[in-house]
Hints:
This protein has helices at residues 8-11, 22-27, 29-44, 59-71, 85-94, 112-121, 139-156, 174-182, 202-211, 215-228, 238-251, 267-281, 311-316, 345-348, 355-372, 387-407, 416-428, 435-447; strands spanning 4-6, 74-78, 103-107, 127-133, 164-169, 186-189, 256-261, 283-285, 291-294, 297-300, 321-330, 377-384. The strands form three sheets. Strands 1-12-11-7-10 form a five-stranded mixed beta sheet, with helices on both faces. By secondary structure, the chain is an alpha/beta fold. The chain binds 5-phosphoarabinonic acid (PA5).
Amino acid sequence: MKLNFSFQNLLSVPDADTGISLRDFENALPEAEKAYKKFLQEVASNELGFYYLPDFDTKKITNFVNEASKEYDTMVVLGIGGSALGSRAVYDALKTTKSLINKILVCDNVDPIQLYEILEQIELKRTLFNVITKSGGTAETMSQFLIIHKILRDAYQADYRKHLIITTDAEKGFMRRVTEWENLPSFTVPDNVGGRFSVLTDVSLVPLAFAGVNINGLLKGAGAMRERCNTTDFMKNPAMMLALSHVLLFRKGYNISVMMPYSNTLVNLADWYRQLWGESLGKKLDNDGKVIRTGQTPAKSLGTTDQHSQVQLYVEGPHDKIVTFLRVEEFKYDYTIPNVYPDELSTNFLADCKLSELLNTEQLATEIALTDAGCPNCTITFPALDEYHLGEFIYLFEMATVLAGYLLNIDPLNQPGVEAGKIATYALMGHPKYTEHQQKVKKYKQERNAEYII
Ligand code: PA5
């Protein structure tokens, strides 16, 4: 059974004034063809490395984790953004799977409390730290690394190396130099795969394989979705359908794309999506250098929990949101609601129903309410939560994101806005390479008007 994408409610919400119809979609087909052609050209010129990842050879990873699992039962990922979100998303989706033998903890902030909590949970001698950074110098990851480096040296002196692995660019960056100086085991982030597109590389495959995830299953699912998206019959191409409908609705004022999983285990998959969609499509300049300030804001919501928090806004608030429901058909664990009060009307309608059945019924109920209210929505159904279907999902959204970028005439692979924040951090922290920027941040601090702080 394949991942199922139901898109009728993207094209035919009753509110014809603000929504889009099948006719709009058909009218946009020449534009879609252009974007698809560009996609194929970029694949052919090796710019879109993620396209080739389903064929990734996992032997090195498997050999490494087989050995590592003999000594360690926990891997702490030190990384941020694309170096962290994919591992957490897939691990959380699968962590109740019985075959997962080891634990992954992700440290993706410089919040001292997060680090404290992680260090409290682990047994140092059974822990492997995986420093993951494509650029090899991100301040957050570097600071985590330096702290862990000292903790390990204090505990194990020269043997600290046994607890560290590095995942970074094959040649460039500070962390690559560290692996050489200190002779540390290392993995690579391919040059042509950006951080947020890197979940199917060593970046997440190493931690996931260590945990016991069937990484070949992930790749197989991704490969199957690549195949499904390899068609110019765009009504049958899930990536193009997703991209084009979102872009057409965005042009009509649907500025927000909400991903709403109906399962707690998928909340971090929605978080992964937020980075992918937000960082790839939020751009100031188009490909011709014109200022366009584009981008649809991704948001996450959890069913059923947020039905009691956000759905009022989705149903009655402005027509500016598209909701993507994530639904799971088969749960690994389930409960039947018992008939405790057979004569009580207020609860006996729930009796003998499975909890998963109620969850999915509520998803359908919200879908109906949103559709009636004129809120475009679509539903992605996982027949089961396993590696194969997660792989399909990952590839689908990576390709849809790139296609949406091409439809918007922007570069979905860069992130100049993230770089700007990184540079300001370096300048504020006194990095010697950023003296020029130091003047600017110093001036900013001096000019902050005390009258506006109360
Ligand atoms: O997608 C991206 O490129 C970014 O979000 C990065 O993943 C993030 O900034 C972390 O960068 P790095 O892996 O270089 O430490």
